[in-house]
Design a protein that fits this description.
- With 458 residues, the chain is mainly beta.
- 14% of the residues lie in helices and 41% in strands.
- It is built from four helices and 32 strands.
- It is flat, with a radius of gyration of 33 Å.
Amino acid sequence: MRTWSRALLPMVFGMLAAVAAQAAEYRTQYAEQWPLTLSSAQSGAYRVVLEPAIYRRAGAADLGDLQVFNAAGQSLPSALLAPDQPLAQPPVQRELPWFVLPPLAEAQRNDLQLLTERDTDGRVRRVEARVGGGAVANGQGGWLIDANVLGQQPLAALVLDWADSGQPLQAQVQLDASDDLKNWRSIARDVPLVDLQRAGKRLLQRRLQVNSSARYVRVLAQGDARLPTLRSVLAELPPAPATLPWEWLSLEPISKGKGEYTFELDGRFPVARADVASTDNSLVQWTLFSRDDESAEWQRRSAPWIAYQLQQGTEGQRQQSAAQPLGSIHRDRYWKLVANPAETATAPTLRLGYQPEVLVFLSQGAAPYALAVGSSTARRAEAPVGVLIEELRQRNDPSWQPTLARLEGSPELLAGDAALKPQRDWKAWLLWALLGLGVLVVGGLAVSLLRQKPAPSA
């Protein structure tokens, strides 16, 4: 029994090592990988705009089979973001006038009278604070910020800048908004202001989230908080929507019925718009359906809409209806157009529109980096990259963006089409088999010990 167990245990450990090595080897799990070229080698985060070849090679409907790896084969933290998130224009900032408010007890704040001198356009020129008709003590208990210069634009946040006193700062403030300097509404409470330094590093929190439209904003210290000496206030406006081009895919029918035309899409494109084209003048009411499997039920993706196409003049000028928004993104493989009336003169061409998405990843380990795509088993774990981007914009600069990385050259074939085929979970079966063998080993040792004759007593 001992001889048998000595021979079996090395086999068990060897098989476990093989399983671990197989789990770590990503090259057998993905169809191919694309080398990445970095615009700057010093950036900590990068963004990759997905190209059509990536969508065509991906197998998962949610693009979960995209993953960035470093030279050592380690997967890097990454997340798939909508096209307007990492590529959006940085927030617009404008400097705002501000005025010091005196320190007040909590009970006095509702009795605070602000005697202001304003221009004809409402901008504050001078502020005098009184409580219950009497003057208040000198000091700095908060600030009054004049946002009239923004007009009707919504205010996303306030970015404060104060002098570095060298002393640690941890304070909490409350934010209130008003349109007449008399009636105030609460925006937020317990908002932290932080300025800490240690070992040459500085932790700074000076951004106050507002997300509201207001002509005036006041920032008041809570409790016995000591506020810093303010130097300037910047208004952060919401970024303008990024103008991203639409990419269009033209599909010809793969099957035809009475007023019904079926199409097949060759990739996991994030389709958000649809259009219909024909080779002749046409005026048809269409309804669009899609599904991801040939055996599944068709799902309606648009309300019926009138699509027309009209050729005018001898120069071939064409006028046609606008593309239809689908309300959300769909990555289905199969699409169907249903015509009303069913008798259409020519078969239509279905045009599907999408905006390329962006994969953002953090650099770890040594380059070169590569984007692996196409797997029926491997799935990317979404990292909170969006939170990181927002945090870095707050700490550094609102215009900060991940550095651009590009797909370079031709893809390197890994497992090929075999990675996209459904596979048996042989690892789970192997682990269960190893567990069973372990039970047999332990049981065999126990039986062997029981069979041993006890030594005769002295």
